[in-house]
Amino acid sequence: MRAKPVQRDPLLFRLREGVEDFAASTPARFAITVFGILVLIFTGLFLLPISTTSGETPPIIDAVFTAVSVICVTGLATVDMATYWSGFGHAVIFIGVEIGGIGVLTLASILGLVISRKLGLRTRLLAAGDANPLRMRKGPISEGQAVRLGETGQLLRTVATSVLVIELGVAALLFPRMLIQGVDPLSAAWQSIYYSAMAFTNTGFVPTAEGLTPYETDPWFLTVLMIGVFLGAIGFPVIYVLARNIRRPKRWSLHVKLTIVTSLLLLVGGAVLFFFLEYDNPSSMKGMDPGQRILQSFFISSMARSGGFATLDMHQFDGSSLMVVDMLMFVGGGSASTAGGIKVTTIAILFLAAFAEAKGVDDMEAFERRIPPDVLRLAVSVVLWGATTVAVSTVLLLWITPDERLDYILFDAISAFATCGLSSGFTQSASEPAQWILAGTMFFGRIGTVTLAAALASSTRRRLYKRPEERPIVG
Fold it and tell me: Domain span at residue 122?
């Protein structure tokens, strides 16, 4: 007896095909669309009365801002996150930061891999868009990079595994410290998991009203948080390579070496600057013993690159220290990571180009590898678009709130763009129009300037001719 053929709904089939074609042909626009839909969904969830401790529907700006901050794993807030949202609200926040931290395209591809146990070409291209922004554009892409297209499936497995292992590991290290502090076991379990997720996703939300106050001088607790933030900020492609070649540095790709070296230089350099700039500040480090000064300096340097946690009041920092934090936030973490900013490899490429120009050589080189010119063009574009986004946001905020200090506004604008989450106090006290601007800055910062530019470009055009060359004066 012959089995009857499975009947497919023509409408659902065409809808699925249309979504798959849209995702495969323009991953950048698909990612922006999905991010927008997620913001709407989570806004709806935060608007539910069950999401607030008061049982009342929150103002639309608070719901939208929180949804954007959660999905973009920023950490900025217009309300007291620990006390304003209920247990249900915090569960929504937890789920949202996991989705936003992993990445929309990566998460969709992981779910497809779990269901079908294999990856087709479309899914590989979709997932690769999160690992390498260059793939967001149409046209051929060189495979001489950190993660090749054929390794996408293994990368996705590494992403899923690393999220579980690292977050559970960080939570396991925090749990006993909370028990020592006197937190009951059930609350300690929830808070340790919450802190570990916020550290690895580089979000920086805290689950209790007192926040980090009970642990603000504790070396164990703060060091564990720094480790979680650092592992989340180096990027999944780096974790993928290190997981397979941790003892064989010669097999590390150029991307991995640049990311690790630049990240460590920024971490140590920032800590040294904070140690001396805040040395005599009575509102921050003055009066601390040398061990605490070093611990707090490294903690600030680590969190300024996208972590978002704070043990000291940024509002009380010296202007020079705020500028250092601004620079670290703008750079951010590694590519394809949970961190934001223009990325550490971007700034590394710019310095390598400057060194090559100073030496009078044509090629950029690092670790015995030559870097092609198109990578430099992309780096310049990322910095330019990032600086433009911050500049436009800052100008609009100054126009709306002319009585506020420039350094505080600039600080929060960069924090929003870099999805860092540190605040000078401006965001929560700002007017509603200013908060809308910061929400837009967070959104554009998270989807990435490369993704945005690729989405706006209809296609990559190839010219069959070249115009006459002429060199303008530069410098």
Answer: 19-128+153-457
